[in-house]
Structure formats: C-alpha cells, structure tokens
Specification:
single chain, 386 residues, alpha/beta, Rossmann fold, 8-stranded mixed β-sheet, 14 strands, 39% helix, 19% strand
C-alpha cells in the first residue's frame, strides 16, 4: 500500500477550536504535515461551557488538507457521566471521519490517557494499530502532575501496546520512563514550523532605538515567568539602545501589562502586541535580534524552532528539553528564575559580546523543521506501524 492510500485517524486531546484557535496548534501542524503524504483525519471533542447545546454538535471541515471533526457537548457534574459523554462524543466524531475517509488504517493519539484507552480498544477489538505523541509537561518532576494509581496503571498498558511513542525531547522521554511508562519504541519527533517562518525573508531594517528583542508565549506566568522579564527590563531603564516586543495573550496578560505600567516602562520601546497569527509573528521576527524565553519549566516551546528558522538566536532558561537544542552556536542558556543572570545576559548581548552565524542557523533549521521533512517522517512511521 502506498502512502496516499494510508488513512490516519488523529485523536487529539488539545486542538484549535472555536473558542481558542491556539490550543494544540502544534497537533494540527503535525496532522497537516502528514496529510502531504497520507490521508489524515482528526477528531477533537470539547465541553462547551459558552452556550447550551442540545446533545452533541458535530462540525466537519477540511483544513490544510486534514479532515477535521470537532464535537461540542455539554458538561456533566457526575464523573461517570463525564467519562461517558467524552467517549460518546469521540465515537460520534470517529463515525463521521470514517464516513468522510472510508475508514482508517492506524490511530495516532495526541496526549494520554483517556484517548489512549480508545486507541487500545481499536487495537484489541478491531485490529487497528496505534501510535502516541505525548506533549504534556505533567510528567516532569517540577510539575508533578501525573498522579493516581489507576491512571498510571492504564497509561503503562497503553504505552506498552503502542507501535511508537513520539516525544519532542529526550527530557520528556526520561520523565515518562521515570513513571515506568516503558517502551522500546520511543522516538524523537520535532514540532513542525509553520510555513510563514520558512518563507518570510529576514530584514536588515532595525528599530531606530537599536536592537530588537522579542518574547512570544501564552502569558501563563507560573510556567513562562513573563513577569521576571518585565522586572529585568525595569532594572534596565537607563538603557535606550533596544526595543522589547511581547507577543501573545493569556490568563496573566492583564497582570503583566499592569506591572509594566506601574514600573513606568517606556511604551514606545516596551511594546505589548497581544495575540498574533503565524504570519504576523514571522513578520515581527524578520528584524528581531534575539528571542527571550525565561520559563520556569517547559517541555520544548515550538517558538524556539520558529526563531531558529528566521535566523534568530535564543536566550532561554536551561529547563526541560531546551538545552538539547539551544547551545553556544545558536543562543544563550541561563538558570530558571535567575533574574540577575537574565539582566546580565541581555546587557552582554546588547553590548555585542555574543555573535552568531544567523544565516547558517536559518538554513539548517528551515530544512530540519519543515512540514515536508516532518510529514515524511510521520508517514514512514505510520507505514511501519501498520
């Protein structure tokens, strides 16, 4: 059977939807990349808390070559009913995908554990193999979010039966194995970088103030520590040789912007753009000198790969899988939470103490993280899994 005849069903715990177009965007990018070589569908279910739904609302769209079915349904207060509604919604979505694609040959689970049980059913009862991609930082010791006797037992069974388990970093693999999620089929799979970061030309035009620094995140301060960046910038008020741009939105956006206002930071140089799409972010990166990530914990943020593809070096904390990618050739690593180290690194960069081969960085990264490269790798994995 050739690649295009291979039909893949993605079961996604996170996926862009009508209320949050950014959630699980990296999952959609994987699916879209694979659709260049295979026939791909995705099912995503969402508890709709915004409006009343009578039963289940099934929405189908063809997005970037991917057959996408979203099923919206009402919440339930009883835990048993919650689980029943979740699986009922997924089965409705799967039935719709089966109708659109004429069946599927392999299941790709994104984020465990409940969807893994559904994939296990298809393997044991229907003879359909499955693979897993795990993205959740709950396995990391800092977050300590993977708990529960039965959850752990069931997850171990699911992982053991998977044809492959992909993770973005070795750090994630080690974290999962520390919970006895054993498999001899773990493999590294990079996140896909969206097309604008592969096609947008870099610019030699720089801000009149000097160098341009950039931060992109979901503004969830417990993990991203955006407030730490703002505090460091406050201590650098005496410098006027740079602009710092913030892109993103989230639960702590208001708190962060109010903090910047309280410090009296110059709004012409410390700029909060809010939410932007990929093309807008790529345009902002085109004349950026340095991406700054000051996370307390991470798996591996795709924005680092996006920056690399734009030839932008990265200043980041040595957490999660970041040290596996960021090194002296492409960036600067500091300890998490160390605001003095952040300030010193920023000052050293502004003073010209760090020099990077940005052309080589861009050329290498655009080849490595393209949809073509990742899509081909995914479809080869599907063919072997069958």
């Amino acid at each position: 059977m050739n690649r295009k005849q291979t039909k893949v069903l993605n079961l996604a715990r996170w996926y862009p939807h009508r209320y949050d177009p950014m959630l699980g965007l990296f999952v959609h990018r994987h699916a879209a990349a694979a659709s260049r070589y295979c026939t791909v569908g995705t099912v995503y279910t969402h508890v709709d808390t915004e409006k009343q739904i009578d039963g289940f609302e099934v929405e189908y769209k063809l997005e970037d070559g991917v057959h996408v079915v979203r099923v919206y349904y009402n919440a339930a207060s009883n835990p048993v009913n919650k689980a029943l509604l979740f699986y009922q919604a997924n089965l409705k979505g799967i039935a719709h995908i089966r109708h659109e694609m004429g069946g599927f040959d392999i299941v790709h689970v994104h984020i465990l554990t409940r969807l893994g049980l559904l994939a296990l059913y298809y393997k044991w009862i229907k003879g359909v193999p499955f693979v897993i991609s795990e993205h959740w930082s709950r396995y990391l010791s800092l977050t300590n979010g993977f708990n529960g006797f039965f959850r752990k037992k069931l997850t171990r069974i699911v992982v053991k039966n998977a044809g492959a388990v992909t993770v973005v970093t070795n750090n994630m693999m080690k974290a999962m194995k520390s919970h006895r999620l054993y498999s001899d089929k773990y493999r590294l799979l990079a996140n896909v970088v969206d097309d604008p970061f592969l096609s947008t030309l870099t610019s030699t035009k720089k801000p009149s103030a000097g160098k341009k620094l950039l931060h992109v995140s979901c503004f969830e301060d417990a993990s991203k520590n955006v407030s730490g960046i703002v505090r460091a910038l406050n201590r650098m008020k005496n410098r006027d040789d740079f602009e710092f741009h913030f892109i993103g939105d989230g639960i702590d956006f208001k708190m962060i912007t109010e903090m910047a206002n309280d410090y009296g930071l110059d709004k012409s140089r410390i700029i909060f753009h809010g939410l932007m799409d990929s093309k807008q972010i790529a345009d902002e990166m085109a004349d950026t000198d340095l991406l700054v990530m000051f996370s307390n914990y991470e798996n591996f943020p795709v924005v680092i790969n996006e920056a690399f593809c734009m030839g932008v070096p990265v200043l980041a904390t040595s957490v999660g899988g970041i040290p596996e990618r960021v090194n002296k050739s492409n960036g600067i690593l500091i300890a998490p939470g160390d605001e003095q180290a952040l300030e010193e690194a920023l000052i050293s960069f502004l003073n010209g103490k760090y020099v990077f081969d940005t052309t080589q960085l861009m050329t290498q990264s655009r080849k490595e993280f393209s949809a073509e490269a990742i899509g081909e790798e995914l479809c080869e994995m599907y063919l072997k899994g069958k």
